[in-house]
C-alpha cells in the first residue's frame, strides 16, 4: 500500500506524459497538466470504508492526492466542511431544502485553502522557494498562510478593487502584496513577466497541477458525506473553474474505483451578469470562452474575465448534463440578506450567487422538486464588506424610536 497512488502528470489536451517528481507548470502545448493515479491498484488495495473511518479532513484522501510522503504535508487543519440545509430560506413550494456546503470553515476562511494546502506542500517538496500568484483575494490569503507555514516566500498581485480584508490578511501572513490598477488577468501577466527575473514559481489557477487536486477533495468529501449517493445537482460559483473541474475529475476517479456509480450530479456554473464568459460560451455552444470586457461584480472570487481551463469547465458542464447561469449583483445581495436573516448563515457574495441561481433555475423549470441540490459557499461572509449599522440608542431615552426587527421581505 502506497501513501499516494499518483503516477504521472498528463496534458489536458495532448495526453502526453510528464514527470510528477519534478516541479511542473503548463504542458508543452501551454495547457493545464492533470495528475493521474494508478486507480486499478488502488481499487484492489483500499476500500472506501477504510477512508470513511479516518479522521474527517482533507488528508484522509491521501491515496488520491499527489504527496508521496506524509512528512511533507504543510497543514493548518483542513477540516471536512458541513452540509447545512437552508430550511427556512424561500424555495418553490414542494421543493426539498437545498444544502449549503459551507467552505467558510476552512483555514483562511475560504476553500482556496484546499488547493493551496496541496499546491504549497508539493511546491516545497519539489524545491520551489518563492511563490507568486495573481489573486482576487482568497487565493492570495491562502497562499500567504501556507507559504508562511512552509517557510517559503510569497508574492501576491491583487486587482485594486480586491476586498480590503483580503489585502490585509495577505500582508499579516508575511507575503509581499501589491494593489494593481488592472484585473486578475493583468496581475497574471505581471507574474508571468517577473518569473525569470525574480525566480518565482507561478501558482496561478491551473498553471501548476496541484491546486486542482486539493480542490478535488470537495467532490470526494461530498461523496463520503452523502454515503456515496451524490446529490442530483451542484451549483458552483465559477471563476477560474478549478473546483468545478476538480469535482468532475474526483467523480471520474471514484467511478473508476467503483466507489460511486452514475448518474453523477449535474453541474451548474454560476457567474455574475457583470462577468459571465462561461455562461456566454455555454449558451452559444462554443468549446472555449472569449474574454469578458469590463468585468464588474461584487463577487470578487468569480470576477475572472478569461479562464485558462475554460474548455475543461465547458466540457464538464456538458458531460454532466448541467448548465451555466448568470445572476445580477442585486440578486446576489438580496440572496445574501435572505439566507442570513432566515437561516442564520452569512454567505459570501459568491455563495449567495449560487442560492440566487438556484431560485432562478427552479423558477425557470430547470430543476425537479425532488432534486437533491448542493450549493457551494466558498468563503466566509465575514471577509466581505457588509452594510453599515446606523441605528443608535441613547441610554438616557431608550426605546424612544420604538423597537423593531428587520423585515424578512419576500
Ligand atoms: C476563487 C473563488 C471562487 C471561484 O473558484 P474557482 O474554483 O476558481 O472557479 C468562488 N468563490 C470564492 C469565494 C472564491 O474565492
Element layout with pairings:
Blueprint: E1 6-11, E2 17-18, E3 33-37, H1 39-45, H2 48-53, E4 83-85, E5 99-102, H3 112-125, E6 130-134, H4 138-150, E7 153-159, H5 164-172, E8 176-180, H6 184-198, E9 201-202, H7 211-225, E10 233-237, H8 242-256, E11 266-272, H9 277-284, H10 310-320, E12 323-327, H11 329-343, H12 349-363, E13 373-377
Parallel strand pairs: 5-13, 6-7, 6-9, 7-8, 10-11, 10-13, 11-12
Antiparallel strand pairs: 1-2, 1-3, 4-5
Helix pairs in contact: 3-4, 3-7, 4-5, 7-8, 8-10, 11-12
Bound molecules: pyridoxal-5'-phosphate.
Pyridoxal-5'-phosphate (PLP) binds next to helix 8.
Question: What does this protein look like?
Answer:
With 410 residues, the chain is an alpha/beta fold. The protein has a domain at 83-109 and 211-382: Rossmann fold (3-Layer(aba) Sandwich). It has twelve helices and 13 strands. Strand 1 (6-11) and strand 2 form a beta hairpin. The chain is globular, with a radius of gyration of 21 Å. Residues 110, 112, 138, 205, 237-243, 301-302, 348, 350, 378-379 line the site of pyridoxal-5'-phosphate.
Structural features:
35% helix, 410 residues, alpha/beta, 13 strands, Rossmann fold, 12 helices, six-stranded mixed β-sheet, four-stranded parallel β-sheet, binds pyridoxal-5'-phosphate
Amino acid at each position: 500500500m502506497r501513501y499516494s497512488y499518483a503516477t504521472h502528470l498528463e496534458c489536458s489536451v495532448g495526453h502526453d506524459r510528464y514527470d510528477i517528481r519534478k516541479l511542473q507548470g503548463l504542458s508543452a502545448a501551454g495547457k493545464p497538466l492533470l495528475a493521474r493515479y494508478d486507480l486499478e491498484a488502488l481499487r484492489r488495495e483500499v476500500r472506501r470504508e477504510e477512508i470513511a473511518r479516518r479522521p474527517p479532513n482533507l488528508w484522509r484522501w491521501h491515496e488520491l492526492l499527489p504527496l508521496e510522503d506524509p512528512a511533507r504535508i504543510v497543514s493548518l487543519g483542513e477540516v471536512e466542511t458541513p452540509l447545512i440545509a437552508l430550511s427556512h430560506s424561500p424555495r418553490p413550494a414542494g421543493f426539498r431544502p437545498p444544502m449549503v456546503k459551507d467552505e467558510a470553515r476552512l483555514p483562511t476562511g475560504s476553500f482556496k485553502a484546499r488547493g493551496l494546502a496541496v499546491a504549497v506542500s508539493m511546491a516545497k517538496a519539489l524545491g520551489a522557494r518563492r511563490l507568486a500568484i495573481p489573486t482576487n483575494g482568497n487565493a492570495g490569503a491562502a497562499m500567504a498562510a501556507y507559504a508562511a507555514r512552509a517557510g517559503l516566500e510569497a508574492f501576491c498581485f491583487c486587482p485594486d478593487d480586491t476586498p480590503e480584508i483580503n489585502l490585509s490578511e495577505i500582508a499579516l501572513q508575511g507575503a509581499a502584496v501589491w494593489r494593481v490598477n488592472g484585473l486578475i488577468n493583468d496581475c497574471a501577466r505581471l507574474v508571468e513577466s517577473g518569473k525569470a527575473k525574480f525566480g518565482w514559481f507561478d501558482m496561478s489557477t491551473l498553471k501548476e497541477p496541484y491546486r486542482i487536486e486539493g480542490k478535488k477533495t470537495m467532490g470526494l468529501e461530498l461523496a463520503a458525506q452523502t454515503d456515496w449517493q451524490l446529490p442530483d445537482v451542484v451549483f458552483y460559483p465559477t471563476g477560474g473553474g478549478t473546483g468545478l473541474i476538480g469535482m468532475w475529475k474526483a467523480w471520474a476517479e471514484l467511478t473508476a474505483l467503483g466507489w460511486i456509480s452514475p448518474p453523477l450530479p449535474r453541474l451548474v456554473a454560476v457567474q455574475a451578469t457583470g462577468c459571465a464568459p462561461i455562461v456566454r460560451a455555454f449558451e452559444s455552444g462554443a468549446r472555449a470562452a472569449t474574454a469578458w470586457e469590463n468585468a464588474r461584480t461584487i463577487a470578487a472570487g468569480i470576477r475572472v474575465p478569461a479562464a485558462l481551463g475554460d474548455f475543461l469547465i465547458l466540457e464538464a458542464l456538458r458531460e454532466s448534463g448541467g448548465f451555466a447561469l448568470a445572476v445580477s449583483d442585486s440578486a446576489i445581495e438580496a440572496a445574501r440578506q435572505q439566507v442570513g436573516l432566515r437561516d442564520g448563515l452569512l454567505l459570501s457574495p459568491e455563495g449567495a450567487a449560487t442560492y440566487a441561481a438556484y431560485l432562478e433555475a427552479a423558477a425557470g423549470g430547470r430543476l425537479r422538486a425532488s432534486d437533491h441540490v448542493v450549493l457551494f459557499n466558498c468563503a466566509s461572509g465575514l471577509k466581505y464588506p457588509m452594510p453599515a449599522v446606523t441605528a443608535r440608542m441613547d441610554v438616557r431615552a431608550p426605546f424612544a424610536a420604538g423597537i423593531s426587527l428587520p423585515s424578512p421581505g419576500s
